[in-house]
Amino acid sequence: MDGGRRAHAADVNAIRVNADLHGKPPIIVQGRSDALVPVNHASRAYLAMNSITEGSKSQLVFFEVLNGQHFDAFLGVSGFDTRFIPVHYYNIQALNLMWNHLKGGAALPPSQVIRTVPRGGPAGAAFALTTANLPAIDDPGSDAIQVGTGVVNVPK
After folding, report:
1. Strand bridging mode 151-153 / 146-148
2. d(C-alpha 14, C-alpha 44), whole Å
3. I need a labelling partner for 74 at 20 to 30 A (CA). Which of 18, 43, 80, 150 fits?
4. Does the pLDDT of residue 135 top 70, yes or no?
5. Cellular component per GO (predicted)?
6. CA angle 30, 81, 78 (to 5 degrees)
Protein backbone atom coordinates (compact mmCIF):
# COMPACT_ATOMS: atom_id res chain seq x y z
CA MET A 1 0.00 0.00 0.00
CA ASP A 2 2.77 2.45 0.95
CA GLY A 3 4.57 1.79 -2.36
CA GLY A 4 1.41 2.79 -4.22
CA ARG A 5 1.23 6.10 -2.36
CA ARG A 6 4.88 6.82 -3.10
CA ALA A 7 4.36 6.02 -6.79
CA HIS A 8 1.33 8.31 -6.87
CA ALA A 9 3.29 11.13 -5.19
CA ALA A 10 6.10 10.66 -7.74
CA ASP A 11 3.56 10.89 -10.58
CA VAL A 12 2.10 14.11 -9.16
CA ASN A 13 5.55 15.62 -8.69
CA ALA A 14 6.46 14.71 -12.27
CA ILE A 15 3.73 16.98 -13.64
CA ARG A 16 3.78 19.69 -10.96
CA VAL A 17 4.53 23.12 -12.38
CA ASN A 18 7.59 24.64 -10.79
CA ALA A 19 8.30 27.11 -13.62
CA ASP A 20 12.00 26.25 -13.62
CA LEU A 21 13.06 26.89 -17.20
CA HIS A 22 16.74 26.12 -16.48
CA GLY A 23 17.92 29.39 -18.00
CA LYS A 24 16.14 28.91 -21.32
CA PRO A 25 14.73 32.09 -22.94
CA PRO A 26 11.06 31.33 -23.71
CA ILE A 27 8.45 33.71 -25.06
CA ILE A 28 4.79 33.37 -24.06
CA VAL A 29 2.16 35.07 -26.24
CA GLN A 30 -1.43 35.15 -25.02
CA GLY A 31 -4.51 37.21 -25.79
CA ARG A 32 -6.02 39.15 -22.92
CA SER A 33 -9.53 38.24 -24.11
CA ASP A 34 -8.85 34.48 -23.98
CA ALA A 35 -12.01 33.04 -22.40
CA LEU A 36 -10.91 29.40 -22.78
CA VAL A 37 -7.62 29.79 -20.90
CA PRO A 38 -7.91 33.03 -18.90
CA VAL A 39 -4.65 34.96 -18.93
CA ASN A 40 -4.79 35.56 -15.17
CA HIS A 41 -4.91 31.81 -14.48
CA ALA A 42 -2.31 30.79 -17.05
CA SER A 43 0.44 33.06 -18.39
CA ARG A 44 0.40 35.65 -15.60
CA ALA A 45 0.43 32.93 -12.93
CA TYR A 46 3.27 31.10 -14.70
CA LEU A 47 5.26 34.33 -15.00
CA ALA A 48 4.83 34.92 -11.25
CA MET A 49 5.88 31.37 -10.40
CA ASN A 50 8.91 31.66 -12.69
CA SER A 51 9.95 34.86 -10.90
CA ILE A 52 9.93 32.93 -7.62
CA THR A 53 11.76 29.91 -9.06
CA GLU A 54 14.39 31.60 -11.25
CA GLY A 55 14.44 35.13 -9.85
CA SER A 56 16.70 37.61 -11.63
CA LYS A 57 18.17 34.80 -13.78
CA SER A 58 14.85 34.36 -15.60
CA GLN A 59 14.81 35.08 -19.31
CA LEU A 60 11.06 34.53 -19.71
CA VAL A 61 9.34 37.13 -21.91
CA PHE A 62 5.54 37.54 -21.92
CA PHE A 63 3.53 39.38 -24.57
CA GLU A 64 -0.10 40.03 -23.58
CA VAL A 65 -2.13 40.94 -26.65
CA LEU A 66 -5.17 43.18 -26.22
CA ASN A 67 -8.24 42.04 -28.16
CA GLY A 68 -6.70 38.61 -28.66
CA GLN A 69 -8.67 35.47 -27.87
CA HIS A 70 -7.96 31.75 -28.06
CA PHE A 71 -9.24 30.71 -31.50
CA ASP A 72 -8.05 32.74 -34.47
CA ALA A 73 -10.16 30.39 -36.61
CA PHE A 74 -13.25 32.20 -35.25
CA LEU A 75 -12.16 35.57 -36.65
CA GLY A 76 -14.30 35.03 -39.74
CA VAL A 77 -17.42 34.57 -37.61
CA SER A 78 -19.81 37.51 -37.43
CA GLY A 79 -19.14 39.44 -34.23
CA PHE A 80 -15.71 37.93 -33.69
CA ASP A 81 -14.41 39.67 -36.80
CA THR A 82 -15.09 43.18 -35.47
CA ARG A 83 -13.91 42.65 -31.86
CA PHE A 84 -10.80 40.48 -32.03
CA ILE A 85 -7.44 40.44 -33.78
CA PRO A 86 -5.28 37.48 -34.89
CA VAL A 87 -2.90 36.44 -32.08
CA HIS A 88 -1.11 34.24 -34.62
CA TYR A 89 0.34 37.45 -36.09
CA TYR A 90 2.24 37.92 -32.81
CA ASN A 91 3.18 34.25 -32.56
CA ILE A 92 5.06 34.65 -35.86
CA GLN A 93 6.76 37.83 -34.60
CA ALA A 94 7.76 36.03 -31.39
CA LEU A 95 9.26 33.15 -33.39
CA ASN A 96 11.28 35.60 -35.50
CA LEU A 97 12.44 37.44 -32.38
CA MET A 98 13.54 34.15 -30.83
CA TRP A 99 15.35 33.08 -34.01
CA ASN A 100 17.25 36.38 -34.09
CA HIS A 101 18.05 35.99 -30.39
CA LEU A 102 19.34 32.43 -30.66
CA LYS A 103 21.14 32.74 -33.99
CA GLY A 104 22.39 36.32 -33.84
CA GLY A 105 22.39 37.30 -30.19
CA ALA A 106 19.72 39.99 -30.61
CA ALA A 107 18.12 41.08 -27.36
CA LEU A 108 14.53 40.04 -26.77
CA PRO A 109 12.09 42.89 -26.13
CA PRO A 110 10.85 43.09 -22.56
CA SER A 111 7.53 41.67 -21.42
CA GLN A 112 4.72 43.97 -22.48
CA VAL A 113 1.11 44.62 -23.28
CA ILE A 114 0.60 44.96 -27.03
CA ARG A 115 -2.19 47.48 -27.62
CA THR A 116 -4.01 46.27 -30.69
CA VAL A 117 -7.09 47.97 -32.13
CA PRO A 118 -10.18 45.97 -33.14
CA ARG A 119 -11.18 46.29 -36.80
CA GLY A 120 -14.70 47.49 -36.14
CA GLY A 121 -17.26 47.78 -38.91
CA PRO A 122 -20.46 45.82 -39.35
CA ALA A 123 -20.56 42.33 -37.83
CA GLY A 124 -19.72 39.79 -40.52
CA ALA A 125 -18.09 42.46 -42.70
CA ALA A 126 -15.32 43.91 -40.51
CA PHE A 127 -12.96 46.48 -41.89
CA ALA A 128 -9.67 45.15 -43.33
CA LEU A 129 -6.77 44.62 -40.95
CA THR A 130 -3.92 47.10 -41.24
CA THR A 131 -0.75 47.82 -39.29
CA ALA A 132 -2.81 50.42 -37.40
CA ASN A 133 -4.69 47.46 -35.86
CA LEU A 134 -1.57 45.37 -35.27
CA PRO A 135 1.32 47.37 -33.80
CA ALA A 136 4.75 45.77 -33.80
CA ILE A 137 6.37 44.29 -30.71
CA ASP A 138 8.79 47.02 -29.73
CA ASP A 139 9.97 49.14 -26.81
CA PRO A 140 6.97 48.92 -24.47
CA GLY A 141 7.40 52.23 -22.65
CA SER A 142 4.51 52.51 -20.19
CA ASP A 143 3.11 49.17 -21.42
CA ALA A 144 5.99 47.17 -19.88
CA ILE A 145 4.91 44.30 -17.65
CA GLN A 146 6.78 44.53 -14.34
CA VAL A 147 7.75 41.31 -12.55
CA GLY A 148 9.01 40.95 -8.99
CA THR A 149 9.33 37.89 -6.79
CA GLY A 150 5.89 36.34 -7.22
CA VAL A 151 4.30 39.63 -8.28
CA VAL A 152 3.24 40.60 -11.81
CA ASN A 153 2.05 44.14 -12.58
CA VAL A 154 0.29 44.40 -15.93
CA PRO A 155 -0.75 47.82 -17.30
CA LYS A 156 -4.51 48.06 -17.90
Report:
1. antiparallel
2. 22
3. 43
4. yes
5. extracellular space
6. 130
